[in-house]
């Protein structure tokens, strides 16, 4: 039963007495507390209260309502679109016509705030707007399951003050339900004489704070503040960042973070080193309505650089004392179909970013010194794509490094016609320039225009055979300057030259997928074959090679009409390809698959580079095995086998075996000396052994090692890592050692210790190399 109290006041005294007697009988009902003055005035509290209790007494003289026994009061908060609840043994509510009403509760009081926070206190006094009030012996459980206790608390407007505070996000037993065997001491907690939570500035401030780990004080600060845990961005000092390495010594940084606007921020990071000069780095981020932009840069002055005497002609520029880098990334959506992009990556030299911890986690395990800057424009239509890209590279061979401006691509495909055929049109324009030519490969300047038309018709017979017919032709036109087609001939280099070619192509692809089910195992077998034909092109030797310098024959391109990545080199001639694809599909996402393929030349021509997977008669035998028979085993193995020499040209292995108790990850790559640029075999392995015997603890050892003798047979990098992680704290500790040598980069070693305190921040190392893993195990 619910009776609004303002209706109660409007009745005659007789009826009021009768109704109050009815209330005194102990009936359970709800009361809407909403006192109105008989004046033309808005009520002070726009959020009425609803009361439920075993016994409710209203005093007209004192203008109060007193409730006892299973008291429940609730209030709807429009801004939060939910309810606020109070549960107590006793409660009184005093209403004033000119000021906010006063709510007092005592005897195991529980307050459930609209934001999800839960308050437990011995006594509580608040206004009916809950903007001012105080509590005693408070225990607070926040919406993210953090816990706070205080002897007193006082809320005044946007600020809430707590005294004698303990705070921790770590799990302990429930607020008031600890069992004897359970602990009340969290893994870590903050204790402070006073804490102020300011909702307007969104900060939490501590005075005379100390950090305790398992009840033992480890750190004291007279003043400490951090953003509200609910706040994602807040100006101020970030947690310190440190590092230790043999090369740079002790490193320490305290980044400064500044929120310029809701969509813009700036981070300035000074880095101090004990063996080298300091580093200053900055990062600016800007997110706008139709895109985003991010720019970063750094500067330092290096001491004791090695001297370089008479460097080779095309050698990288030796590092100078003043070293810097700039980086930027911008994306802008002009409309729903058009997009602009800008990437800037430049440095004073190519070893700067590998040596210095600019990115907080320098990837010492993998060295990639090449930097790429680009400007792009893209347009997307339903069946059409158009893109223009401009590239600038920074490499270790500056005189022969290309500058690309522009490279344009166009592609359009029609919808299938009545018989299922589809027509596609492709276009490409490329302009490349460099300081010096590369005899037999590249010119100082080249412009290329290419256009092609292709028709594709897939057809499925009544017996299930899939036959795909492809017909097409492509025309290429070239203009070159200073291109020497034969690198072994010394003589006059042609100043300018124009050439072109026409490349018709035809292919017929046959596949016959067969499937059956045996004992809940789905078995798919698909034999396949193809005939590919294209007239022999005799003009390739007069054309520079800009975009087809890398060729790898494997299971992904064996059946393609053009096995080269680009346009400059063509897969002309005639060949037959055949293969077999087997796949077993078990329950619970288990599977085993095997692909085998081979091709034979029908024209006895050498099309691909010598020793790269195909001669004048046939290709290597190509194989790929993927195995996932059980949950604790996953492997992938790829190889190319020379059919004449019966030797492996390349092989790749990715293996993951074990579970959380003990797990081994292995990645191995092998290249025959005929497949490498320097004519030396490559055999490299990276592996990691990890274990997680306990729920929160993990230990791992990782290593990258060159297995060939005489090529730095020792480990290239080693890493020992231990970690602990629970709901409120994370600890990562480890040591690492690298043996890379490149100009001013020398073998290095160091250790890391990373501490992450939930809702407070992290104490993070600058140099924390990670095990690269093996992408080969991905299916």
TrEMBL record:
Domain LptD C-terminal, residue spans: 322-697
GO cellular component: cell outer membrane; transporter complex
Keyword Membrane in record: yes
Identification of the protein by name: LPS-assembly protein LptD
Predominant location category: membrane
Similarity-based family: Belongs to the LptD family.
A Pfam family per the record: LptD
Function per UniProt: Involved in the assembly of lipopolysaccharide (LPS) at the surface of the outer membrane.
Subcellular location: Cell outer membrane
């Amino acid at each position: 039963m619910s009776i609004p109290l303002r209706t109660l006041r409007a009745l005659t005294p007789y009826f009021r007495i009768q109704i109050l007697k009815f209330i005194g009988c102990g009936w359970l009902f709800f009361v809407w507390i909403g006192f109105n003055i008989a004046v033309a005035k808005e009520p002070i509290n726009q959020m009425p209260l609803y009361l439920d209790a075993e016994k409710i007494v209203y005093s007209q003289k004192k203008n109060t309502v007193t409730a006892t026994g299973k008291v429940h009061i609730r209030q709807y908060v429009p801004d939060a679109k939910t309810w606020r609840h109070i549960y107590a043994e006793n409660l009184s509510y005093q209403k004033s016509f000119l000021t906010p009403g006063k709510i007092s509760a005592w005897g195991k009081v529980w307050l459930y705030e609209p934001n999800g926070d839960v308050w437990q206190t011995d006594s509580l006094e608040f206004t009916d707007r809950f903007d001012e009030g105080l509590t005693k012996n408070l225990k607070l459980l926040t919406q993210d399951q953090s816990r706070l206790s205080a002897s007193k608390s006082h809320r005044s407007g946007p600020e809430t003050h707590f005294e004698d505070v303990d705070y921790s996000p770590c799990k302990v037993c429930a607020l008031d339900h600890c069992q004897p065997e359970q602990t009340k001491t969290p893994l870590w907690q903050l204790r402070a004489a006073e804490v102020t939570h300011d909702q307007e500035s969104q900060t939490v401030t501590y005075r005379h704070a100390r950090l305790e780990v398992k009840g033992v004080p480890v750190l004291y600060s007279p003043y400490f503040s951090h953003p509200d845990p609910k706040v994602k961005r807040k100006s101020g000092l970030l947690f310190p960042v440190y590092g230790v390495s043999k090369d740079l010594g002790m490193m320490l940084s305290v980044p400064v973070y500044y929120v310029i606007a809701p969509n813009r921020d700036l981070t300035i990071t000074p880095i101090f080193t004990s063996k080298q000069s300091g580093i200053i780095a900055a990062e600016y981020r800007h997110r706008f309505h139709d895109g985003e932009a991010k720019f970063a840069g750094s500067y330092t002055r290096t001491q004791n650089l090695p001297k370089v005497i008479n460097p080779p002609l095309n050698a990288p520029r030796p590092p100078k004392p003043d070293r810097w880098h700039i980086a930027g990334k911008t994306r802008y959506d002009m409309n729903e179909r058009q997009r602009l992009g800008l990437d800037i990556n430049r440095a004073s030299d190519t070893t700067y970013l590998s040596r210095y911890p600019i990115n907080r986690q320098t990837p010492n395990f993998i060295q990639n010194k090449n930097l790429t800057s680009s400007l792009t424009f893209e347009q997307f239509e339903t069946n059409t794509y158009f893109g223009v890209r401009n590239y600038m590279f920074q490499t270790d061979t500056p005189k022969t490094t290309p500058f690309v401006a522009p490279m344009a691509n166009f592609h359009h495909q029609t919808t299938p016609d009545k018989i299922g055929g589809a027509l596609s049109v492709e276009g490409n324009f490329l302009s490349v320039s460099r300081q010096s030519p590369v005899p037999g490969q590249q010119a100082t300047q080249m412009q290329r225009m290419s256009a092609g038309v292709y028709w594709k018709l897939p057809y499925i017979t009544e017996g299930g055979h899939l036959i795909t017919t492809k017909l097409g032709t492509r025309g290429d036109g070239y203009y070159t300057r200073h291109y020497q087609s034969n690198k072994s001939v010394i003589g006059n280099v042609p100043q300018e030259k124009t050439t072109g070619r026409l490349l018709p192509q035809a292919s017929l692809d046959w596949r016959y997928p067969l499937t059956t089910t045996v004992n809940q195992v789905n078995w798919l077998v698909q034999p396949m074959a193809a005939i590919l034909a294209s007239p022999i092109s005799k003009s390739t030797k007069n054309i520079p090679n800009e975009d087809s310098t890398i060729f790898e024959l494997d299971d992904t391109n064996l059946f393609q009409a053009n096995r080269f990545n680009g346009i400059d080199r063509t897969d002309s001639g005639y060949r037959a390809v055949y293969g077999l694809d087997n796949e077993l599909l078990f329950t619970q996402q288990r599977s085993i698959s095997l692909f085998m393929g081979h091709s034979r030349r029908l024209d006895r021509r050498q099309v691909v580079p010598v020793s790269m997977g195909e001669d004048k008669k046939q290709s290597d035998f190509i194989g790929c095995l993927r195995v996932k028979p059980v949950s604790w085993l996953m492997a992938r193995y790829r190889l190319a086998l020379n059919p004449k020499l019966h030797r492996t040209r390349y092989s790749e292995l990715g293996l993951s075996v074990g579970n959380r108790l003990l797990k081994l990850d292995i990645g191995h790559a092998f290249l025959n000396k005929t497949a490498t640029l320097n004519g030396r075999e490559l055999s490299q392995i990276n592996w990691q052994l990890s274990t997680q015997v306990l729920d929160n603890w993990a230990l791992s050892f990782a290593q990258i090692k060159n297995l060939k003798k005489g090529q730095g047979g020792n480990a290239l990098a080693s890493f020992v890592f231990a970690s602990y992680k629970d709901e409120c704290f994370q600890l990562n500790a480890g040591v690492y050692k690298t043996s890379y040598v490149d100009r001013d980069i020398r073998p290095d070693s160091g250790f890391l210790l990373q501490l992450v305190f939930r809702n407070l921040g992290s104490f993070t190392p600058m140099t924390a190399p990670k095990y690269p893993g093996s992408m080969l195990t991905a299916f």
